[in-house]
Amino acid sequence: MINKIAIIGGGNLGAAIAKGLVKSGKPFKGEVIVTRRRVHLIKSLEQEGISVGQDNLKAVENADVVILAVKPYQLEDIISEIQPALSDEALLISLAAGVDSQRISEMASGRKSIFRVMPNTAISIGESMTCVSSYEATEEQDAVIRELFEPTGTVQFIPEELMASATVLAACGIAFALRFIRAATQGGVEIGFGSDLALKIASQTVKGAAELIIRGEAHPEAEIDKVTTPRGITISGLNEMEHQGFSSALIKGLITSFEKIENGSKKR
Ligand SMILES: NC(=O)C1=CN([C@@H]2O[C@H](COP(=O)(O)OP(=O)(O)OC[C@H]3O[C@@H](n4cnc5c(N)ncnc54)[C@H](OP(=O)(O)O)[C@@H]3O)[C@@H](O)[C@H]2O)C=CC1
Ligand SMILES: O=C(O)[C@@H]1CCC=N1
């Protein structure tokens, strides 16, 4: 039973997770406390039933789950700071991209039951794709983490060696998908829509395309075949996009992001 969750680092992701956990309602009913140094910037979270503060040690006291949502380079200092207040039973979750569990365990004096969780920012609206890896945790502890994050979207446990890939595909992926929507909107304006309407049409179209795959478990290419009339309009546009490097640009972008994580983690 989780009675208290402490989120250390109420920035973009920490605040989004707090909102997502509180909105999800179950299985968690206890306190969520979020800290950051410039606490005035997260005062508004209080209106959503989330406690805020500056004192990391106090936040971590009696917490069943501690989520570290600071930048990767701050992880070591934060862990040393909170360690005196961290209970032996607390589950420690790191969101830091590119810092592996063994390293986190070393920072925490050999602590076990460490999780790396990589949600994306859609967690604030209960639509995250959240990849999780667990390090020296029991099945029961895995289940606690699954149950905690499931109401905030889709949860997938993966081997830790795939965490960097998950970061690129799911976490950075939000930006990649949004850039598609933005580009489609700009194209929509060129062909006659006002920008608001173009954005509405482009975003609902992307949502519908994603739902066709998620609900129908269809393959994207099979759905594309249904839209591409021979000698038709769709295929001419689609092929022009491919001539301009559409798929290739996306794949190269994913690989570039992946290499950035890999090179970064080697430096740590
Ligand atoms: N899954 C995803 O989509 C994403 C994952 N990430 C990962 O999540 C982590 C957080 O990233 P992001 O939210 O973008 O970063 P932000 O910079 O937005 O948030 C980090 C927060 O930590 C706070 N902070 C810094 N020092 C302390 C301290 N000593 N005590 C308490 N709080 C502190 C900062 O606030 P202040 O300066 O006021 O203290 C800041 O708000 C990173 O490790 C990153 O790798 C990042 C982005 C997206
Ligand atoms: O861009 C970044 O470095 C972070 C990691 C995952 C998403 N944002």
Structure description:
It is a single chain. Helix 6 crosses helix 7 (195-216) and helix 6 packs antiparallel against helix 10 (246-267). The protein is built from 10 helices and 8 strands. The mean pLDDT is 94. It is an alpha/beta fold and 268 residues long. Helices cover 50% and strands 15% of the residues. Helix 5 links the parallel strand 7 (128-135) and strand 8. It starts with a strand and ends with a helix. It has helices at 12-24, 56-60, 75-82, 101-107, 139-149, 163-190, 195-216, 220-227, 233-243, 246-267; strands at 4-8, 31-35, 51-53, 65-68, 91-94, 114-118, 128-135, 153-157. The chain has 2 domains: 4-158, NAD(P)-binding Rossmann-like Domain (Rossmann fold, 3-Layer(aba) Sandwich), CATH 3.40.50; 167-267, Orthogonal Bundle (ProC C-terminal domain-like fold). It has an 8-stranded mixed sheet, sandwiched between helices. Bound molecules: NADPH dihydro-nicotinamide-adenine-dinucleotide phosphate and (2S)-3,4-dihydro-2H-pyrrole-2-carboxylic acid. (2S)-3,4-dihydro-2H-pyrrole-2-carboxylic acid binds at residues 97, 167, 171-172. It is an enzyme of class 1 (oxidoreductase). Belongs to the pyrroline-5-carboxylate reductase family. Residues 160-261 form the Pyrroline-5-carboxylate reductase dimerisation domain. This is Pyrroline-5-carboxylate reductase. It is found in: Cytoplasm.
